[in-house]
Each structure stands twice: as structure tokens, then as C-alpha cells.
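User: Good morning. I'm curious how heme C would be positioned relative to this chain. Could you predict the structure with it bound?
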Amino acid sequence: MYKLLLTSILLLSLQPILAKESATTTATADASEPTGASLTQQHCTRCHGDEMYMRDDRQVKSLESLKQRAHGCNTMTDANLFEEDVAKIIDHLNTEFYHFER
Ligand code: HEC
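Assistant: Good morning! Here's the predicted structure, ligand included:
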């Protein structure tokens, strides 16, 4: 009996710690860093989708022009993305669609 009591006290006192832990985990997941894909989805699909990066006569033909285009389009979005976010987007577009040498 005494042992059972001890165990429940132990469990009870652990509970807030466990609860807190899972709360932090959820918070971290929510506030997790946006990825290049999610940033593109969120900010770059108002005027065009991915088909823009796959069209036959696409204009971007080098990593340099991809950077210029992404920055130019970023200005048009009014999203005022941070440099590192634009870099993530560029990375995403290059990995998925353009495949330029880095
Ligand atoms: C205000 C509308 C608008 C938004 C928002 C926009 N774009 Fe664009 N984007 C365009 C237009 C229009 C073109 C085509 C230009 C042309 O054909 O001359 C284009 C073309 C591009 C191209 C060139 C495709 C190719 O190879 O021919 C890239 C890359 C691009 N956009 C990236 C982005 C990224 C990244 C974002 C988000 C940061 C974004 N765009 C948001 C209007 C937009």
C-alpha cells in the first residue's frame, strides 16, 4: 500500500513536467522554421504556381538570374521577406526545378 502511494505521488509530481514537455514540443513544432517550400507556397503563389518554373520557355537560366528573379518577385509580393527567407526559396526552387550548379 505504502509503495502504491509512493508511486502515485511520484507520478503526480511528474505530471506537470511531462505536460510541460509536450507543450514545449508542440510550441516548437508550431513555431518551427519555415521551409523554402512553405515560404514559396505562402508568398509566391498569388501570381503564379510552380508551372512558372517548369514552362518550356522559362527565362531563368542560371543561379544568378534565379536569384535576381526571386528578389524581383519578392519585391512584388509586398511580403518583405528577409534575405534568409528568399535564400531558402531560391534553394527550394533550384532543388526542385532548376538544378543549377551551386
Ligand atoms: C505580383 C505577382 C508575382 C508574385 C507575387 C511573384 N511573382 Fe514570380 N513572376 C511573376 C511574373 C509576372 C513572372 C513572369 C515574368 C515574365 O514572364 O516575364 C514571374 C516569374 C518568376 C520566375 C521566372 C520563371 C522562369 O524561369 O521563367 C521566378 C523564378 C519567380 N517568378 C519566382 C517568384 C518567387 C520566388 C516569388 C515569391 C517570393 C514570386 N515569384 C512571386 C509575378 C509574380
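The radius of gyration is 23 Å. The chain has a mean pLDDT of 82.
Let me know if you'd like a different ligand tried.
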